[in-house]
Automatic annotation (TrEMBL):
Residues making up the signal peptide according to the UniProt record: none
UniProt key word Repeat: no
GO cellular component, one term: cytoplasm
Matches recorded under InterPro entries: Aldolase_TIM (IPR013785), PCB-like (IPR055268), PYR_CT (IPR000891)
UniProt keyword Lyase, yes or no: yes
EC number: 4.1.1.112
Keywords: Lyase
Highest taxon listed in the record's lineage: Bacteria
Protein name: Oxaloacetate decarboxylase
Length: 156
């Protein structure tokens, strides 16, 4: 279960994360990504550590407004993976047109999972298209193994 607090206060996530864990389910803490003078790389690293202290199973970077740039995604994922042994997931909305590139750079940096949507339900306020990412990664070390023809049938 992905648990988030839009204000990035781990105290607001703690009870929900503990409830998820108490039922033997996967508890995923979330960094609600934003930009401001107060939201530095160190801010995200500190929040990651605080979430890990609550006992999360994994962490998601939630870019709900589509403002995560590709290079910021690369840096953030790289630095979290370098410092912490945690499964890391990226959730980007396609609002600004940067989400596909942010996902690709995050994959290059070692993110463990990304959110996408089937093409007929993707883009704008949704997620990047699954088919586009599958095609982009085909034949690389990050090949998903998904069948693009089956995905196209789902999208139709």
């Amino acid at each position: 279960f992905r648990v988030f607090d839009a204000m990035n206060d781990p105290r607001n996530m703690k009870a929900a994360l503990q409830a998820v864990r108490s039922h033997g389910a996967h508890a995923q803490g979330t960094l609600s990504y934003t930009t401001s003078p107060a939201h530095t790389l160190q801010t995200w690293l500190d929040l990651t550590e605080q979430l890990l202290e609550t006992g999360v199973d994994s962490i998601a970077i939630k870019d709900m407004s589509g403002i995560l740039t590709p290079m910021a995604a690369y840096e953030l994922v790289s630095e979290i993976k370098k410092r912490y042994d945690v499964r890391l997931h990226l959730h980007c909305h396609a609002t600004t047109g940067m989400a596909e590139m942010a996902l690709l750079k995050a994959i290059e940096a070692g993110v463990d999972g990304v959110d996408t949507a089937i093409s007929s339900m993707s883009a704008t306020y949704g997620h990047p298209a699954t088919e586009a990412l599958v095609a982009t990664l085909a034949g690389t070390e990050h090949d998903t193994g998904l069948d693009i023809l089956k995905l196209e049938n789902i999208a139709a």
